[in-house]
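We treat protein structure as text, and this decision shapes the records that our systems exchange. We quote a single record here, exactly as it is kept in our systems:
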Amino acid sequence: MNGISVLQEALSAPAEEARNRFAGRLNGYLDGSDVVHAVRLQGWLGLEVPGPGCHVGTGSWDFTRFKPTTSPVTCGRCRSAGLLTSSFTGGPHQQTLDLEGI
């Protein structure tokens, strides 16, 4: 088993837990910030984890700093990109298409 495989195996449970926390189309915020982001699944070391839809830098590799909230999206970057709600509904590796406005 190579180093990446071992790392992915070690992080697969925390990544699944993070996806489960955001099940139900919750929005998210980073610890220490009051800005609320739309949530999108993002690739990270071969795993999928919830992250800010605008792809703003989190200042850390720690994806557990991104917390779920029911508050509305306030991020200017998310809003200007048309990301007014989260598209992630939960479940293992399942993304949904955001077809609002089409």
Observations:
- The CA atoms of residues 21 and 68 lie 7 Å apart.
- The longest helix spans residues 3-21.
- The longest strand covers residues 39-44.
- The radius of gyration is 14 Å.
